[in-house]
Amino acid sequence: MEYEVVKLLKQSEKSTVHLVRKRNEGQLFIRKELKGKHPVYASLQTFTHPYLPRLYEVILADDSTTVVEEYIEGSAVGGFELSNRQFLNIVKELCGVLDFLHKKGIIHRDIKPSNILYAKDSHIRLIDFDAARMPKEDLEQDTIQLGTRGYAPPEQYGFSQTDERADIYAMGITMEKLLGENARKPHYKKIISKCTNLDPNKRYQSVKQVENAFSHTRYAVLGVVLAAFVAGVVLVWNVVPEQSIQQETVQTGDSNLTVLPAPSDPHWDGETGIALWGNVPQSGEGSEVHYKWRLYRCDTPEPPNLNRSEWGNESDMRGSIDDESFFDLNLSCEFWDNGYYYFAVCAVGDGITYADSPYVLSDAFEYKGEDAPRLPAPKDLTWIMRKDTEMDSRLYFASFSNWDDYDDKDSFQVFVYDENGEYIMSNIVSKENMLEKDWPGIRIRGEFVNEPGKSYRFAIQITSSHPNDFRASPEVYPWPVKETHLSPWLRN
Asked: Does the first or last residue of the chain, that is N or C, have fewer Cβ atoms within 10 Å of its Cβ?
């Protein structure tokens, strides 16, 4: 097929890139002429993915490769300021396309902002596979060192053969660049630090784990039912997958929605680190209420400006609260440095009748437990099954032996993983309510752990109700988790 050159886009010793169009036609394409043989493009031509450009022609010669691919109108993600929602969506889509590629055996090896286009349809396209490769079992290191300095991990410079963890390293550097000052927020900083560990074995081991880490931070729990109990009343929380963290004006047709009342009397429950606010029954959907919260840290008791964006953490959850007047949440595990902590909370509308309420701010909690000892880890983890005679089904519990080491108001959170280390679900409940329910451990819903042929294990973290005296027990999320903190396998 004959093309005419519209514009030279890039030229280097290794490649020449032109904007071209078919002769006598208006459709635009990108034509790349690369030195050397790049068989990865021939493989990519056989794949289809919404976040990859379509390849129309791939011509492989002994010393050159010519590629004609889709022209995508848009901008590199590093070229403009991103909202928090845009950033999280970019992370999700980048994880999705990299997971697709990695399952095909393709390592990109040059993840950076300029290779991620934000197209006119508000979705990304991952471009430039010039440095990409497919791992070979008989090689101990890469034969050709390619990539961009500052984004490529140590193993990409010949220390060992690269695998998908090289892309995870570069993704961490990319996220840090895109976040700017926000990269210093504790929940982002922790994820980025794990992505960019110099030891590949200490990074996330798959992009699915990276995606889960962001999702868990964003929503508190992902794809699960999270059960907490307040004064003997059951709370059930779960994720709203596509809700925006940012508050927006919502309209349906020509009519404005009714703005929900803000939660009343947001305050801390003494020295427990438990946040309380008035329930808004109209929030959420059906029988479930729905809230967003943000956590702020200040050096002085002076309240933060609610309009600023420098909150330290945020999350999004639902709850079934049975007409109770107050909703509670233990936030002590979210504290990082000593200081004064405030939380802001808003009620979330259903998007049909109600719009989100304004955020309202709590009083201050003075945290002094940065150097406090950790609560002991749960011991002798074991699975316990009971027969549910009413539902004719099996009940699963995550149990442990050292209950007496914890206060009645301490919270017990279980994290369930499969045999690949993938996060499955999470549940949380206080000790006093496990005792009231006569439960032998933390309830795990059977539909998450009963898939035939699959195996599961869990880990438990305890959140202190005396955060100035004790920090939470050792962290068990995200994966990898120390073997000593994991239960035996439940095999189906």
From this structure: N
